[in-house]
Records
---
Amino acid sequence: MLIAGIGTCNAERYEMSILKFLLENARWLTGAFLLTFFSAFGQTFFISLSAGDIRAEYGLSHGDFGLIYMLATLASALTLPWMGKIVDFLTPAQVAIITIPLLAAGALGMAFSTHVATLVLTIYILRLFGQAMMTQNALTATARWFGANRGRAVSIVTLGMNASEAVLPFVFVAVAAAIGWRSAWTSGAVLLTLFALPLIFVLIKTQREPQTSDFEAKNQEVRSWTRAEVLRDPLFWFLVVGILSPAFIGTTVFFHQVYLVELRGWSLTVFASAFSIMATTTICFTLIAGALVDKYSAKALVPAFLIPLSLCCFVLAIFTAQWSAFVFMALMGVSYGFSSTLFGALWPEIYGTKHLGSIRAIVVAVMVFGTAAGPGLTGWLIDLGVHYPSQIFAMGIYCVFATGLMIFVSRRLIARSKA
């Protein structure tokens, strides 16, 4: 009974600690949360909801649209190392003033584009200012705002993406069915301009001042590496092998979701509803990962995110019943939960915060490159007649090998931090 009482007391203290943390930092956490939420307009899971309509109106095959998407996304990845550096010398609010209107312009481009050239430009804008810069701004700011509680803060902020995955696919499908897919994109542009921008600006215009609790001994800041030093670090490039996986696999599956649904004979509406399952598991494991990062460090947890990712690939490749989509989404959510928190907390833990914007710009560019390569490569293989489920199975095999490499990298990073 005494042990049970102590456990209950500790649980209550932990809950109070979380509540206090949320209340004291509500404005910054909410602002960064909304940045990741509205990044959805440039994310593949959202853009691909219009894939069928785009291919039909522009007369594109799966491979054609995949190539267009790949080229536009590659262009955004090449732009990001330079564009992403602005978070090192502008405040988060100033960056938001630049990126959100440009993201809204991309949404309007999707609504009014009638030529393939403008479609490429539109997707480039959506990917650069949605997927890349909105998350770059949110996670870089969060990593700088918080020290000892960085894992917890990052886990809360990244929930914005999970919330958008749970809500926006269903809402967009419903709105598009009622007023047309182009008008639905126009509505998105209005939402970004009249609601998201002013609200986010008000929340983050005041910089967060460091607090005593941010500087516990276990989380003292490491030496700040320059971007040039990071690019010469072999462990960074080993990490790239792992961090490419969620971006490549998730983007590929969601980009070709309409094709997958047609191939399996599933309902697109039911498949879209499965995003809520992924969002739920992602939320749970994002919070779990945040607590574990603060307790054990991000370096120690690096291998964790690839195991469920490999399993979800095997499930989707092997099983054909519609329930497998829900299992896939659940396992993908576990991986996304771990990876989203890890990728937000790992880089400042390894390389410091002074040049974090420049370093994260390279990291995000690599991830964007993965999202570009996936749809283009798989679309080309689909056009060649390569079995799509077999491609997904091969992705699972890749994750198994990458897990072994991440175990090696984790041990080396821990050893280096103790040297």
---
Amino acid sequence: MKTKEREAKKSLTVAELEQELRQTKEKLANLSWKHSLSPLDNPMELRNLRRYIARINTWISSKKVGNHGS
């Protein structure tokens, strides 16, 4: 993910980030299922999605803590 894309995603609201999280988890589940049937062309995609999910979770928690503290 490019820096500009990352900054744009980071500036989303908590609800939008949670929607993005649901979509990404669905995509990861689908890819994992496909990978269990036959090898993926790019298995690094699984790793990248897991890292992106962690990044989204971090953004969500930091926004919740930031809003809660104010």
---
Amino acid sequence: MNKIKIGIFPGSFDPITVGHEYIIHKAAEMVESLIIGIGDNSNKRHHFNIEKREEWVKKTFENYPNISVKKYSGLTIEFAKKENSKFIFRGLRSTIDFEYEKQIAETNSFMDENIETVFLLANKKYGMISSSIVRQIFINNGNIDPFTPKAIHIT
């Protein structure tokens, strides 16, 4: 009997960017089911509420049957276990991202060695894009459309 390969792509998506979208498409090709986990990270102060972030992510991937969206709180590794995920996908833009994500991946592996973290490299044209930069542009009344998925319009 073949097991369905499930992966998660966690993030706060405050807001979702074209960089996220690119990595999610890559991850979705590697598993039969990809769950985008919108985390309620207690260490972050979110600009957009979780309902709005969930709406944008769902709208971005509404035409992809193997991608679903769920909100969660607590540890990502616990969310992965709850969803029977074998993979946690993370996007990397730089060596700084790698050093940060490597520590988390090693900790998660210690907590559950059956769940593998898979690092996917960002497309070089999206390497400079982060949610925090997009938020700053938005807060200062700049146009964020080039940095967010075409399926949504953030106002």
